[in-house]
């Protein structure tokens, strides 16, 4: 009979379903319109907003439908009808799947296939994304719907959860866990699945609202604890798993001698950004990405002043060690005598210790990528092509700087996270140094789920003079080789000496 | 017995809503649970329907514990309550269409007959209906599947007399082989068709009797004495709610027997001029018992 109840729910609440589908169609349409080059860039923000609206409207629709046969009630008609509670639960779960899982799977798969991705990885990625949306939006909405009797009550609970999140954000100074980190994601999904199943079981099995609300509160606290556990927790789990290498393919050290020179080159974006001058020695065959940095500051007499995970400063020009990707060290970096790496400091910490001489210690959490394969591909301007190991790639003359050729790839679901590209001369030799780039999106279980709906990734800029877009390219795929740490110690510095203004 | 309650207790936190409640309803009976507001009638019914669970005690419906009522049992129980929340966003016709497949013995002809009788607008949404119309919709949805048991919780509350009569008539026209359990304040209306009455007061069942027994054993007695009435020092336990006016003394006899009355009166008052024994309607019996309970602080 659950289908009969579902038909009733769809008849009564079709406008919500239509709104959810319309938002998903709009998001897909934008992805298609933006294409590989993700233009206009403003659309990315609008697309993110529409994706958020899709989740919010889907969640709202689920709560409304669950409350149309409310469990928290002593007067509703369904209670005295021969309606099996298991049928009712199945109906509500099916509705939740219908507005979260199904559209996500169908439309994301469609986008992936339209971009020329292979069917199996596209199905895997869209199925995983759909499952995450169901668990992340559908299950919590079902839980909220079953433990509340009215929309204001549900809104109150959602508001309380948002308040808890804001509280956590303030207390931890915005140090949220990286949701792309698999231990964090797995922990969150486990909490949601266990709590969701418990609440649905308790409510539809026993109508035990008091216990269900307790479960919801505990699950919220657990989820907040996971979200606001410093990122290092995920890294430590990887270390326990034995996935962290003891030897490192990179050596970082404080570049004291060229400090003034390095900092003089830095552009001061914000008052609380410091620039750490580094000597970098890296295996030329490896790409190393910075996942995170733990900073400790101690006074001259060894008294600890500050210890926390800090974020990398973004928005810095290319060709610096810390570039827009948040930190890539590659073979090309070895050519530079010195580099600096920009990190954000909490403004209050900077203000408090900026003139205090002390010892800075930076623990870098790093991942290294080794080349997997090199593919020769001819990518003439404006012709998207499927490139094995990358996805669908296209070149164009940069619309702002005609000295540069852009190579964009819409990564395949199982594509390489990093890319190195060079132009080949007629003899097959590389012209100039390879240009490298790593995708900012994370992969789960080998699936790059953002590949389906995140255009504008794996962007490489090649010198037009080398003949990119005309001559063939050598594209190198990379695979993760190891995760490791490196510690850089700055023996006695003042934070103000590490700012851009200090160098001028 | 189609309903059997044994020593039911229901607590809401520290508040004891029902205590030691025991009653039974035989098949084919029309049982009225009467009592003042807050006496525990609705709580009793909600426990019967497995909407609430008793804190203690055994409550069975059609042989099954109320907590284990299945869809099979519920497909044989009709329920109408003044506080019943029908799906307001559904039209009357859509609502009945939705319910039909849940009942294997739904009688469409009966449904149509009742719809015609009640003149219900099929296309109108339930939330746009008046309270009387909503109760009529609930009654159609409670009788169309020919239930074995009909549970009515204050179904006539706030309805005008015409609608009330229409509903009662409709219920009675389908009462054959039907067991009815009703809680109501409209005692005069239900008096005509109830077979048994249970009087609930502050969570306790004060008495339970068939309407015949109740009518036979409860009388308003007026005793006209020779001189100014002076109440006796001790009253027989079965005489309640005494009053005096001049040389007339009145009370309610709860164990009336015509052949014993004269001797009972003589034993208490000695010589009397005149004794009058009047039968009481259900409302008067209810209000008398309620008043006595109130005066006794119980």
Structural class of chain A: alpha+beta
Q: Low-confidence parts of chain A, pLDDT < 50 over ≥5 residues?
A: 316-328, 330-337
Specify the oligomeric state: heterodimer
Instruction: Encode the helix/strand succession of chain A as letters.
Output: HHHHHHHHHEHEEEEEHEEEEEEEEH
For the largest interface in this structure, which chains are involved and how many residues does each contribute? A-B, 17 and 28 residues
- Number of discrete domains of chain B: 2
Strand content of chain B: 25-35%
What's the helical proportion of residues of chain B?
A: 25-40%
Biggest sheet descriptor of chain B: 6 strands, mixed
Please report the total strand number of chain A as a whole number.
14
* pLDDT < 50 runs, ≥5 residues of chain B: none
Count of extended strands of chain B = 14
CATH class of the largest domain in chain B: Alpha Beta
GO molecular function, one term (chain B): ATP binding
Organism (chain B): Caballeronia sordidicola (Burkholderia sordidicola)
Pfam families (chain B): ABC_tran
Domain ABC transporter (chain B): 3-227
